[in-house]
Design goal:
heterodimer, A: alpha+beta, PH-domain like, Protein-Tyrosine Phosphatase, Chain A, 2 domains, 7-stranded antiparallel β-sheet, 5-stranded mixed β-sheet, 26 helices, about 45% helix, globular, B: alpha+beta, 19 helices, 14 strands, disordered N terminus
Chain lengths: ~650, ~550
């Protein structure tokens, strides 16, 4: 690559952020796609891989006696502080990275060189995995009220919309085209979500070009048509997700919002979500808090509050909750818009869909949701996440906020989601990584022109293949709390919004909970399944062997049971605390206090009980096997590196590295 | 006994209110659901009556709940408010001289429990015996200095030297590193005081293990310790304690944490505020900094023991509150046994319930007791001067919160779940059990024979799913928590228990249990492998 000035620097030190005194010595490599730091320590040789597209800023700090410090901030919130001995090397690395981190052509992005070694057919199947046509069918479309419109064929009406759109049956092509002319960037009202139970729907658009007094008959008819598509209600909500002041300011530019007097039977509502610039600054401030070196509790809380981040998250959630309630409880359709209808509108529509429909809380459903409300409706991924070098003022963590909203909901409803936190984190990572083609470009049209599906791979297929890693063991699809719309507390609860340490500090492993309940329970589940399968196989075999008599097995298995109780030691269902219950109960607590054990064993001197109540024996065996079991069975454990960005695709990365 | 129609403000419910000797009872009547409120009167912390035609009584309960009773008749509401107040006055002390026993635990017929069943469930003597065995093994190589300091006289001298006679006692012996965790009160350093005896003791301690260093963790700031000199107390002089280093880790004690707690409870009850307001209020309450400081001081002490092989002496001024907090948390971090269900109960019993009042070495048990081999083992602390008795605030909310934070960071390492912590929190105030009734052990005799013990209530089979963690995995390792601000969280289960619905997390807890029991059931169904292996092998050979 012509941009790499120096491919390798030795004796570079990587500074540990938490305890800055600790630093590891290693070698820094620059490749066409990654920055790689390899530790010198011969036994570990730990590697840190960073994709160029993840690099957000590079900062060269004042040279010190120890060398020249280079600070690399990543879009996935990793922070790398390197100290390079030679000033000249540091400068070379700096200049190379500046260029590498800001590609100018799509073809420079990683997804065009990334090769997971799948054949053409597998690639195509991958892209077919998430299919919006199927999703519309699932919602119950088309039906007597809604139909598929071909008005946007070949992107004739609106180039940031998809070609296939659902509109009310009574909305003719004339009305749609007329309405699109009255809307910013011609983004006319189209269906986002249809609530089968009561025919209410969520539609989305951009702001009307109403200025101070302009009207458009077709646009008014369009809203009328949306209302009529829901026979159960005689009005619709029009939700403007901007603060009122911002919307008023837009009127001076000939844009603005709907005038309730001109549109019949609408209820207009402002929900003040700030614009992308405010959000960008807010994230910036919050990340500064995360970078503080050993702050006090007050520093942290003040910093968090001043950043306003959680307030913004709450505003988005509130908008989603408002819409979900209107749809599910009042049965009223809602039209949502902001300015252009691709940032705040996408956030709010997807949060509302998530609250309303349990399908979107499943693994596959969540992919569909992102495909539906973000990718197909022209969320400007390229601009917002800075995939190509562009205007820094366009960058904003819009989808990050949505992902955080989902996490906040997961914290409140631990059983409602089929996927876990890792799933969200990996999606966030890949939105920035450009390793897969899903999030490239600004619209469907651009993606089609680039032939993304023929030249790159789909993230959804990759996630689906590894879905075992992303399952939430606590998911209860059938539970009363998780069926249908999620019921949030009626009182406005500020306390439920928490700082997401697992996302924003995720590379500081020391700060995270050191044990994962998810992984543990998944491993237990997996083991149960294995046992089940084994048992079935054995039973089949037993049936074949006619010599064996059934009642024998039963008696014998009962005897061997306490000795088999190892591995995951978990406290029993049966409490055997009082001696009188004890004789009837063959099982005893795997982890009881030794003192108690003495007492019990004195009372009951059966062989089994003595064995299992001996504290030293049971404790030591449990410890070892328990810990080992976990590490080898847990989905993410074993040899795989804990940070997903490097480990998984090591092979393919290396191939690229060699060719470079 | 009073009766009145009633209506509650939070989740409006109409019904009949009954006041009994111990309870406040709300029966919604026949037409309503069978929901029934039952509150122990002692649980009401404060009842405020507002004026107006229909009296409204706001009750703040000790379990952080706020109830609003609207009583149609103003007269009656006045009567009720008065009755509640009276009941409050009556019940806090368990046995009132002249009045007799009024306390509910004496009348509580607990289903499935017999009296006297398990009052001795976790006698601390057992722990000390066990530790003495361990220590004895270590001390086998100890030098002669040690036997000298084991002298009862030296101990008595040392006790006189410490504020309130709280001489250094063993809190925990870390068998792996052979180090000990001691606690005491501050030394008295008046110019005329003789320190020789204690210095000898110290020298003996440090010499107990060759090469062992010692750290004194003073939970006051250096300045506060200096100020204590005015009252003839203060710090250990450097020269006198060779081999011991002093570290000051100021922990606030007494009122400030209590006030923070109350402030936070109030902030959590205020539903009107905006989210920004909320964060600054959380900050203003200053509760989480207490948690952070307690945990980091504990980690310092624990690290000294485990990593640096040093003996640690923790003391503040009185050697109660924050000293106990640090020593008991350090055990949770270091000692895998104390992370079990039995272990935590023993720890709470030993470090919080039994330790109170002032200790006097003169009342130690006969020296035949193995525990008396070691000067710092004091198995039976007994109160001598009840008048100046200062009770450590049990259960220290701070202690429970810190344990919760540990559990959040190491969910697999604790055998008990959040349920137990909440139960301890609840039962410390208005409890049908007698465990926390008396301040000191001496007053316990009647309590013991006539009330039920909390542990027996908690250890019943039906409580298991609520209190035990389904995912406990024993590990011999220490658990080192992160004390950075972003790793600490507000304990939602406690502070927001009446605001955020507990059902979602309850459903998750159930599911966890279900997954684990599913596996156990499958295991039970497995045909025996070992016994039938030959047959099966033969079978597989045949078929394959």
């Amino acid at each position: 690559m012509e941009h790499i000035r120096t491919p390798k620097v030795e004796n570079v030190r990587l500074v540990d952020r938490i305890s800055s005194r600790k630093a590891t010595l290693g070698t820094l490599y620059l490749t066409a796609t990654h920055v790689i730091f390899v530790e010198n320590a011969p036994d570990t040789r730990k590697e840190t891989w960073i994709l160029h597209s993840q690099i957000s800023t590079i900062e060269k700090q004042a040279t010190a006696a120890s060398g020249c410090p280079l600070l690399i901030r990543c879009k996935n919130f990793q922070l790398l502080q390197l100290i390079i001995p030679q000033e000249r090397d540091c400068h070379d690395v700096y200049l190379s990275l500046i260029r590498l981190a800001r590609p100018v052509k799509y073809e420079e992005l990683y997804c065009f060189s990334f090769n997971p070694q799948l054949d053409k057919e597998e690639r195509e199947q991958g892209w077919m995995l998430i299919n919006l046509r199927e999703e519309h069918k699932r919602m119950g479309l088309p039906n007597p009220h809604w139909q598929l419109s071909d008005v946007n064929r070949d992107y004739r009406v609106c180039d940031s919309y998809p070609t296939e759109l659902y509109v009310p049956k009574s909305a003719t092509a004339h009305i749609i085209v007329g309405s699109s002319k009255f809307r910013s960037r011609r983004r006319f009202p189209a269906l986002s979500y249809y609530h089968r139970d009561n025919h209410a729907s969520i539609c989305r658009s951009s702001q009307p070009l109403s200025g101070f007094s302009a009207r458009c008959l077709e646009d008014e008819q369009m809203l009328q048509a949306i209302r009529k598509a829901n026979p159960g209600s005689d009005f619709i909500y029009v939700v403007d997700t901007r603060p009122k002041l911002n919307a008023m300011a837009n009127r001076a530019a000939g844009k603005g919002y709907e005038n309730e007097d001109n549109y019949s039977n609408i209820k207009f509502q402002f929900i003040g979500i700030e614009n992308i610039h405010v959000m960008r600054n807010s994230l910036q401030k919050m990340l500064e808090v995360c970078e503080l070196k050993s702050p006090s509790m007050s520093d942290f809380l003040w910093g968090l509050e001043n950043s306003g981040w959680l307030r913004h998250i709450k505003a988005i959630m509130d908008a989603g909750i408002f819409i979900a309630k209107a749809v599910s409880e009042e049965g009223v359709s809602v039209l949502v818009h902001c300015s252009d209808g691709w940032d705040r509108t996408a956030q709010v529509c997807s949060v509302a869909s998530l609250l309303l429909d349990p399908h979107y809380r499943t693994l596959r459903g969540f992919m569909v949701l992102i495909e539906k409300d973000w990718i197909s409706f022209g969320h400007k991924f390229n601009h917002r996440y800075g995939n190509l070098d562009g205007d820094p003022k366009e960058i904003s963590p819009v989808i990050d906020q949505f992902i955080e909203c989902v996490w906040q909901l997961m914290e409140q409803f631990p059983c409602a989601f089929e996927f876990n936190e890792r799933f969200l984190i990996h999606i966030q990572h890949h939105i920035y990584s450009c390793q897969f083609g899903n999030f490239l470009c600004n619209s469907q049209k651009e993606r089609q022109e680039l032939k993304i599906q023929e030249r790159t791979y789909s993230l959804w297929a990759h996630l689906w293949k590894n879905r075992a890693d992303y399952m939430n063991p606590l998911f209860r699809a059938d539970h009363s709390q998780t069926r249908g719309a999620l019921r949030l507390p009626t009182t406005p609860c500020n306390f439920m919004y928490k700082f997401w340490s697992g996302m924003y500090n995720r590379f500081e492993k020391g700060l995270q909970p050191r044990q994962s309940v998810t992984d543990y329970l998944m491993a237990v589940k997996e083991e149960t399944q294995q046992l089940e399968e084994e048992r079935e196989a054995l039973e089949e075999r037993l049936e074949k062997i006619q010599k064996v008599q059934l009642h024998h097995t039963k008696v014998k298995s009962k005897h061997s049971e306490p000795s088999k109780h190892s591995g995951f030691s978990t406290s029993d269902n049966s409490t055997a605390n009082t001696p009188q219950d004890y004789s009837g109960n063959m099982k005893s607590f795997p982890s009881r206090s030794p003192s108690q054990g003495d007492e019990d064993s004195a009372l009951i001197l059966t062989q089994d009980n003595l064995k299992s109540s001996d504290p030293d024996l049971s404790a030591s065996s449990d410890q070892e096997s328990g810990v080992e079991d976990l590490s080898c069975r847990s989905p993410s454990g074993g040899e795989r590196a804990p940070s997903e960005d490097s480990g998984k695709d090591r092979d393919s990365d290396e191939a690229v590295f060699l060719t470079a | 006994m009073d009766q009145a129609p009633e209506e509650s403000g939070v989740a409006p419910l109409r019904g009949t209110l009954c006041l009994t000797g111990h309870h406040l009872l709300l029966s919604p009547g026949l037409q309503m659901t069978s929901e029934l409120w039952l509150r122990l009167l002692r649980s009401v912390a404060e009842a405020v009556r507002l004026g107006g035609d229909s009296g409204i009584i706001t009750q703040r309960c000790k379990d952080l709940r706020v109830l609003q009773l609207e009583i149609l008749d103003a007269e009656e509401s006045l009567d009720i408010a008065r009755s509640i107040e009276m009941a409050q006055l009556l019940s806090p002390g368990a046995v009132l001289p002249g009045i007799g026993i009024t306390s509910f635990p004496f009348f509580y017929p607990f289903k499935g429990l017999r009296l006297r069943d398990a009052w001795h469930f976790h006698p601390p003597e057992r722990y000390y015996k066990r530790t003495a065995r361990e220590v004895g093994a270590v001390l086998g190589e100890a030098n002669e200095d040690f036997s000298l300091s084991a002298d009862d006289d030296a101990l008595a001298l040392s006790a006189r030297f410490r504020r309130g006679g709280r001489f250094p006692v063993l809190s925990y012996h870390h068998a792996l590193s052979g180090t000990v965790l001691l606690r005491s009160s501050q030394p008295l350093t008046g110019p005329q005081k003789r320190r020789r005896a204690e210095e000898l003791l110290r020298a003996g301690l440090a010499g107990a293990r060759p090469g062992a260093r010692g750290f004194i963790v003073d939970t006051r700031s250096a300045q506060a310790a200096k100020q204590a000199r005015v009252t003839d107390a203060g710090t250990e002089a450097k020269a006198a304690y060779r081999g011991w280093k002093r570290r000051h880790r100021p922990l606030e004690r007494g009122r400030p944490p209590q006030e923070s707690f109350m402030c936070l409870v109030e902030a959590c009850g205020d539903l009107e505020q905006s989210i920004d307001h909320w964060l600054s209020r959380l900050e203003g309450c200053h509760w989480l900094p207490h948690v952070k400081e307690a945990l980091s001081t504990t980690c310092l002490a624990a690290q000294g023991m485990e990593r640096e092989g040093a003996c640690i002496l923790v003391h503040g001024a009185e050697g109660t509150d924050s000293t106990l907090l640090v020593t008991s948390l350090a055990q949770l971090i270091l000692d895998p046994l104390s992370r079990t269900m039995a272990g935590i109960q023993e720890l709470v019993e030993r470090d919080w319930i039994q330790v109170s009042g002032h200790l006097a070495p003169a009342l130690r048990p006969p020296s035949r007791n193995p525990a008396s081999l070691c000067p710092w083992l004091c198995p039976l602390p007994r109160p001598v001067t009840p008048s100046s008795c200062t009770m450590p605030t049990w259960p220290s909310h701070l202690f429970l919160d810190c344990v919760w934070q540990l559990g959040r960071q190491f969910p697999l390492s604790l055998e008990f779940g959040e349920g137990l912590l909440l139960a301890l929190f609840e039962h410390a105030y208005p409890s049908p059990f007698g465990t926390f009734l008396c301040n000191r052990r001496d007053g316990l005799c009647e309590v013991r024979t006539r009330t039920h013990f909390l542990w027996s209530g908690l250890n019943q089979p039906k409580e298991q799913r609520r209190l035990w963690s389904p995912i406990y995995t024993p590990s011999p390792l220490a658990i080192w928590p992160s004390v950075e601000p972003w790793s600490l969280r507000l304990w939602q289960g406690l502070f927001l228990r009446w605001i955020c619905p507990p059902e979602p997390s309850g459903a998750a807890w159930e599911k966890g249990w279900q997954i684990v029991t599913d596996k156990e059931k499958t295991e039970l169904l497995q045909p025996s492998f070992s016994l039938w292996a030959p047959t099966l092998n033969a079978g597989s050979l045949d078929s394959g």
